[in-house]
Design goal:
By secondary structure, the chain is α+β, with helices and mostly antiparallel strands. The chain is built from seven helices and 16 strands. Strands 7, 8, 9, 10, 11, 12, 13, 14, 15 and 16 form a ten-stranded mixed beta sheet that branches. Strands 2-1-6-5-3-4 form a six-stranded antiparallel beta sheet. Strand 8 and strand 9 form a beta hairpin. The radius of gyration is 19 Å and the shape is globular. The protein binds pyridoxal-5'-phosphate (PLP). Pyridoxal-5'-phosphate binds next to helix 6 and strand 14.
Length: about 290
């Protein structure tokens, strides 16, 4: 049984209930963030909570907790689940109950859910993953709101085509981001990723950019789907997927179809960093 935090109490997940009248239930109005632990230490927790605060600001949701308070509650929730080897953490702030069922009245509640971290098959990292593209984009993409309809649709399509992820491609044929990941590719020694603004600024994305800067030239610019042929290597990033190599986009093979040297280098940089993160000795300050 997992213990979660809900509105001031630590309860078993079976007893953690919210009102059916909450705007998060009625209208999908709420924000969330997700992260994992390394050596039982939540990875870049303050940055994830900072993004939760920004997401709330973008959608006009009032939070009643300071960053430090949320961080403390998250750490306490992890501590109350000692049976987890490592944890996947979900922080949710609901829109709250509203008199007319539509207008936010600042009555949202905070929830923190912690579950055992489920790893992905090692094969995906050694052989590389297939991703597909979908003609879609998110509403208010800089916000991690609980309105994830496009992701549910995109992931369903990816599953149908035996792919691990779906990349959103907009009307101008720009590759934006994955349903729950950010996208990167190599053209020569240049590491390219779409700029923030029309994507979610992933915490893993920011960490990877900072780490990769010491080895490669990093370019944040629009990437067109037509550039797929010029991509020698590619990968996606997310808290739960870390750095995941991509060897196929739709029916196009990336490079020679195998996990390349440069992506392996980025994976290693990320692994070294996460291994030492819990010690607190080397922690990046993210922009
Ligand atoms: C749309 C989207 N982009 C990117 C990411 C990756 O973000 P992070 O690296 O902070 O987990 C996520 C995470 O769920 C996401 O939902």
């Amino acid at each position: 049984m997992d213990i979660c935090y809900i509105d001031g109490k630590f309860l078993s997940d079976e007893d953690a209930l919210i009102s059916v009248k909450d705007l998060i239930v009625l209208r999908g109005f709420g924000v969330f963030d997700a992260l994992i632990t390394y050596n039982k230490t939540p990875f870049h927790l303050e940055d994830h909570v900072r993004r939760l605060e920004k997401s709330a600001e973008y959608i006009g949701l009032q939070l009643h907790h300071k960053n430090s308070e949320i961080c403390e509650i998250v750490r306490e929730t992890v501590t109350r689940n000692p049976h987890h080897h490592e944890s996947a953490i979900r922080i949710v702030y609901t829109g709250g109950i509203s008199s007319d069922g539509l207008t936010p009245e600042g009555r949202g509640i905070l929830m923190v859910m912690v579950t055992e971290l489920m790893g992905l098959p090692a094969r995906v990292y050694t052989e590389g993953a297939k991703v597909i593209t979908v003609d879609a984009a998110r509403f208010l993409p800089a916000a991690k709101s609980t309105c994830y309809l496009s992701a549910v649709f995109a992931k369903r399509e990816a599953k149908k085509q035996e792919a691990i992820e779906a990349l959103y491609v907009d009307r101008d044929t720009r590759i934006l981001e994955g349903a729950t990941t950010n996208f990167f590719c190599f053209q020569g020694e240049r590491l390219i990723t779409p700029p923030t603004g029309e994507i979610l600024s992933g915490v893993t994305r920011s960490v990877v950019i900072e780490l990769a800067k010491s080895v490669y030239e990093v370019e944040e610019r629009d990437l067109l789907l037509s550039e797929t042929g010029a991509m020698q290597e590619a990968f996606i990033t997310a808290s739960s997927k870390e750095v995941m190599p991509v060897v196929r986009i739709d029916d196009r093979q990336i490079g020679d179809g195998r996990v390349g040297e440069r992506v392996r280098k980025v994976m290693q940089l990320f692994r070294d960093y996460t291994n030492s993160y819990a010690t607190g000795k080397s922690r990046l300050r993210l922009p």
